[in-house]
Amino acid sequence: MALAGVPRVARPFRTAQYRILAAALALSLLGGGVWLVALVWQVIGIGGGPADLSLVATAPAIGLVLAVLFGGVAADRIPQKRILVAVEGAKTVVVGVTAVLSSAGALELWHLVIIAFLLGVADGFFYPAYSAILPSILPAEDLLAANGFEGVLRPALMQAAGPAAASFAIALASPAAAFAVITVSQVAAVATLVFLHPQQVRRDLASASTAGAAGGALRSVFADLVGGFRYMLRTPWLLSTLLFASILVLLIMGPIEVLLPFAVRDQTGGGAAEFALALGAFGVGGAAGSLLVASVPLPRRYLTVMILLWGAGCLPLAIIGMTSSLWLMVVALFVVGFAFSAATVIWGTLLQRRVPPELLGRVSSLDFFVSLAFMPISMALAGSVGQVLGLPLTYAIAGAVPVVLAVVAIVAARLYRDELRHPLRVVDEGTETSVADIDTH
């Protein structure tokens, strides 16, 4: 159908069900942004220090890693609307209890650790379900734009609007008020999701039920997990990308998350404000990259473009280790954020278009699991590596090695052939159509 005059990035919003899903996601992300700031000031308010904050901040990542593979199994077995409503409802209760305890002055550090862990578990079920339901309510040609919109929404709400709302609530009252804001946001998200139409699970559940009856529920879940891993190992484009992405996370997340404050301080003489500016540039770049990819057709050489964006996009990191100019750091981080998010939008779209529907939840959960599993390792190693090698060499490695790995991944897995065998063509006034959306091998 001709869509002249309708911007590509806006096309998903023609679908009423997507508008509902997007609104619920926005409300949830807004609450997540408020949580990031409220948590810090609550820990400080109960007398906690950096070590305490680190403990609480690590808890949700642990919860997510432990839950996300099972969240993928659930997303392939249970109607995703039920999962989304249940998860957002559970988060509402958990954060509501946090607000009550905080206002009563009864909140302790161990409470926050458990609460943060539970929120991480909830996210472990939310994201596979969200990834699996999106192709059920949108045509294939709108998935790239929808993923791009999410890429814009995440930094806008979690790094800008959410923290701003939290700061206002804390300045006006207390961290308890910020937790109350999250609770209201979560209630609104649940109320919005109620209007989402139930979607059929795109899988033959009869065989899964038979397996469960024969071997028990636990064996059935284990069989589903094995099925996801088996598909990953037998699908070269998926396996090579996940291996490349895991090494990429190991190489760059530590330098960005751990070493950047020291680079800003030692090389530019900057403080907290300058660090916030540099980190903000990464987020703004990510939003810009997501918006651009959402506004153009999927490239014909989509695998090559995606891998090169991730690999070559890291090159500006080398500048951070060599420059004493804050503005050069800001520009470098903008470019890295731009390339990283642009590639991530393509990646999310490829999962939704090429993975068989009955496996999408589990494969999406594998994606989250691999990425998150290496992130804490990178952050743990960054300090020691930076101290031994020095910041210039550490950032040079983080900038240069991903380029080499990108070329190796493209050539070794023959991605340049795979993308031509499974084209996602563009026809008639910018509307995409797929010749072979589902990868069967």
Which helices and strands occur, and which strands form pairs?
Elements: H1 16-45, H2 50-75, H3 80-103, H4 109-137, H5 143-172, H6 175-193, H7 205-215, H8 217-234, H9 236-268, H10 272-294, H11 302-312, H12 317-322, H13 326-354, H14 360-389, H15 391-412, H16 415-421, E1 424-427, E2 431-434
Antiparallel strand pairs: 1-2
Helix pairs in contact: 1-2, 1-4, 1-5, 1-6, 2-4, 2-14, 3-4, 3-6, 4-14, 5-6, 5-10, 5-13, 7-8, 9-10, 9-11, 9-14, 9-15, 10-13, 11-13, 11-15, 14-15
What does this structure look like?
There is one protein chain. Helix 5 crosses helix 13, helix 9 packs antiparallel against helix 10 and helix 9 runs parallel beside helix 11. The chain is mainly α and 441 residues long. Strand 1 and strand 2 form a beta hairpin. The protein has two domains: 193 residues, MFS general substrate transporter like domains (Growth Hormone, Chain: A, Up-down Bundle), CATH 1.20.1250; 214 residues, Growth Hormone, Chain: A (Up-down Bundle), CATH 1.20.1250.20. The protein is globular, with a radius of gyration of 22 Å. It has a two-stranded antiparallel sheet.
CATH architecture designation of the largest domain: Up-down Bundle
Spatial gap, N to C terminus: 31 Å
Low-confidence stretches: 426-437
Measured by DSSP, the beta-strand proportion falls in under 5%
Mean pLDDT: 84
Determine and state the CATH class of the largest domain.
Mainly Alpha
Q: What is the 3D form? A: globular
Order of helices and strands: HHHHHHHHHHHHHHHHEE
CATH superfamily of the largest domain: MFS general substrate transporter like domains
CATH topology of the largest domain: Growth Hormone, Chain: A
Count of DSSP-assigned helices? 16
